[in-house]
Amino acid sequence: MAQGIGQPAAYEVVADGHVTTPRGFQAGGLHCGLKKTTRHDLGAIICEVPASAAGVYTTNVFQAAPIRVTKDSIGEEGLLRGIIVNSGNANACTGEQGDADAYEMRAKFAEAIGVPAAHIAVASTGVIGENLKMDCVRDGISKLSTNLAGGAQAAADFSQAILTTDLVEKTVCVRLELDGQVVHIAGAAKGSGMIHPNMATMLGFVTTDAAIGSEELTQLLRRATDLTFNMITVDGDTSTNDMLVAMASGLAGNKALTPAHAGWDAFAAGLRYVCEVLAKAIARDGEGATKLVEVQVRGAVSDDAAQAIAKTVIGSSLVKSAVFGADANWGRIIAAVGRAGQPVNPNTVDIRLGDIVTLEQSRPIGFDEDAALAYLKGDTVVIGVDLHMGEGAATAWGCDLTYDYVRINAAYRT
């Protein structure tokens, strides 16, 4: 059993699990012609019963049309039967036509699988400001709706269909026992660039067969998001299309989860683990990245203060550049700590790179530069900051800033 977050042995990681592992779910993906390549660009997840649903969305003022459609769908009854997703085109900043296209995607997919339109969520990702090729979308929905299935290949097809500049698919699954029944929680996500705390461009999809209401699922999803997806950054940009949607089929047979349920904390820990794995995978797959960077802040006056400091350090272009260059420049780290706008005692800060202490009680100490260089050349770098002011703690994740990031984004549209 894996170590649960906040509760030991809360869940077990399912190595070969995926979004159709939870009971009641099917998925699929195909190429419909939105992308210039032949990579999949249209995918879907469906549930055989109305599933309790929850969503978390971008805080960007310019929310894309699919965001509005999905909010409408989940807001109706808190239930979903499916999600239709396209990549290659964000359908953002496309005016009334974009809204009409997103609602048509919802209606066409609902009709194809025989469910009410209000039980379908819509998500899109890709280039902003271009209208969807709806002939391609319509034809793709017609073909996709007859090829949805359970199993690893169908789940992989879906995972491929949601990618843009991502280099790898991002999936995870756990299981736990509730009321003597085996419950699964699984997820798939995409994200590589335009990633920053406050729902950063990412799409995430969580499926579970647990019995839980929409309100309770929303409560847990928001909390998990705050501690995971909202603690990652690649480049400081948030997108118009970020969305995290969870669906719970209730087919595991457990008693409905509420805060009074004995398994509430265990389920919350499993959900947070799923979100954390996906969030870290997004950070590691940052555009042009060579390293996953983790910032651990301890000893802050509160968890909120620790979160703000961790986000500031992980988002610093100077820190990210130093990590790329394997330069043990702790001065860039402490400068970021000092500008985070949170209480800091300038005389009590410790900084470490992995196990190498570079600053103690805000005083530089001698450290082995060669050992630091060797550590920073690894594919995972952990930066530790201890403020010695309180019990507040937080962890954030990001990546290094490389020449390739500029190359990729200089020609993203072309």
UniProtKB/TrEMBL annotation:
Heterotetramer of two alpha and two beta chains. This is Arginine biosynthesis bifunctional protein ArgJ. The active site is at 201 (nucleophile). The record marks 125-126 as: Involved in the stabilization of negative charge on the oxyanion by the formation of the oxyanion hole. Pfam families: ArgJ. It comes from Paenibacillus curdlanolyticus YK9. HAMAP family: ArgJ (MF_01106). PANTHER family: ARGININE BIOSYNTHESIS BIFUNCTIONAL PROTEIN ARGJ, ARGININE BIOSYNTHESIS BIFUNCTIONAL PROTEIN ARGJ, MITOCHONDRIAL. Catalyzes two activities which are involved in the cyclic version of arginine biosynthesis: the synthesis of N-acetylglutamate from glutamate and acetyl-CoA as the acetyl donor, and of ornithine by transacetylation between N(2)-acetylornithine and glutamate. It is found in: Cytoplasm. InterPro entries: Arg_biosynth_ArgJ, ArgJ-like_dom_sf, ArgJ_beta_C.
